[in-house]
Amino acid sequence: MDILSEFFERTHLQGRLFFAGPVDGTLVLDKPPGMAFIHVISRGGIDMVQPGLPKIAISEPSVLFCPSSCRYQLRSSSVEGAELICASFRFGRNALQPFPLGLKETLVFPFRTLANLAPLIGNLVGEFHGQAPGRTKALNLLLEYLFVLLVRRSVMEGKISSGLLYALQDGRLGAVFNRIHQEPEALWTVEKLAHLANMSRSRFSACFTRIMDISPMGYVTAWRMKLAQDLLRDGVQIKVIAATVGYSSQASFSRTFLNVVGLPPAEWLKRDGCETGEDVPPLTVRVVQSAENF
After folding, report:
1. What's the DSSP call for residue 134?
2. If DSSP codes are grouped into helix, strand and coil, which group holds residue 43?
3. What value, to the nearest 5°, has the Cα angle with vertex 293 and ends 101 and 67?
């Protein structure tokens, strides 16, 4: 499995359709942090309005790729209204930061520039208009596929030039992430990681921190704790988890988990098990006839 696919599998990329239909007014999103979005505008015009920024006017069928940090409203700008297919994306549940994706501003891809994606867009719109059994599942899978293709294209075109999605496809750092993800229990040091990248220690550390906004060993720890959360959910004993993610004792693992996550492992698992639903707080969406202030 290639490293980007492996990352999506390990972090449980979840694409979910949350709105599909006509918009004659303003689509208002009250979204929790950590969600990225794709909006497919198949008909009509839309203005993306963000607080303190010029509006983005979309007057032709387009795909909007929106980062989790963006606050915005989508307002119909055409007399006949607009037709949208909207999906949210998260990496698992209660995912630890920092795994910055590197998508810092909304990217707009007109359909006419996505010629190689025309069959996928066509299938997506076709499923949306149809009522065949399994429609929602099919739309979710197609939207996840679209997410992967947009990530690939954005990196190739230099529209994503930092963050994990960029670093995973970087020729120097890809091997580093692959080894960290495959061997979290290894006795990693900055020197060993720099050797994998075929770079000096100082150059590697500066490059990694610039792209990821976290130190190499900070990322190793964050990744170990992310795996530890997954294993806790699977019912693995804490002492086994400690060894699996590279700690010589249960006590040292528990101290690190507490420092990073904010709770001891057992207490975190208890709270995690009490949560219902996958989006906390929930994503809500409304269509209103007049613009609302942020």
Report:
1. T
2. strand
3. 10
- Both 101 and 239 in one domain: the answer is no
Same-domain check for residues 120 and 249: no
277-289 core/surface letters (b: 16 or more CB in 10 A; e: else): eebeeebeeebee
In this predicted structure, what is the pLDDT of residue 203? 96
Predicted pLDDT of residue 277: 46
Q: Could you tell me the pTM of the whole model?
A: 0.76
Distance CA 190, CA 216 (A): 7
pLDDT number for residue 125: 85
DSSP-H helix ranges across the chain: 3-10, 118-129, 135-156, 164-167, 174-182, 190-196, 201-212, 216-233, 238-244, 250-261, 265-274
Residue 184 pLDDT greater than 90, yes or no: yes
**Quick one: pLDDT at residue 106?**
87
Burial of 257 (0-12, 13-18, 19+ CB in 10 A): buried
Could you tell me the residue range of the domain that residue 229 belongs to? 170-262
127 and 16 belong to one structural domain: yes
Q: 218 and 119: one domain?
A: no
**How many Cβ atoms from other residues are within 10 Å of residue 217's Cβ?**
14
In a domain, 267, yes or no: no
In a domain, 97, yes or no: yes
Please give the pLDDT value at position 238. Answer: 96
Strand 26-30: give its sheet, edge to edge: 56-58, 46-49, 73-76, 26-30, 284-288
- d(CA 138, CA 127) in angstroms, rounded, equals 7
DSSP helix/strand/coil, 152: helix
Q: Tell me the per-residue pLDDT of 43-81, one tens digit each, with 9 for 90 and over.
A: 999 999 988 888 999 999 999 998 776 788 899 998 888
Residues 199 and 152 occupy one common structural domain: no
The answer as to whether 17 is a domain residue is yes
Do residues 147 and 180 both lie within one domain? Answer: no
Instruction: Indicate if 201 and 256 belong to the same structural domain.
Output: yes
Q: Domain count of the chain?
A: 2
